[in-house]
Amino acid sequence: xxxxxxxxxxxxxxxxxxxxxxxxxxxxxxxxxxxxxxxxxxxxxxxxxxxxxxxxxxxxxxxxxxxxxxxxxxxxxxx
Length: 79
Description:
mainly alpha
């Protein structure tokens, strides 16, 4: 996963579309940790479409929206 993830990050390709849920979550977390909150939100939103019970994705999505200043969307993820 490490090499694939690194290549995906460097190439800017939407690799999260083909990844398994665990890898997709990790990619979202990596973007969040790199303070790329818009990319983190995009990946996490995609993950939650197919895995709506992924609690960690909601936590990071809430935090990403908050860091982007989009408090309305952040609030909607906490519901």
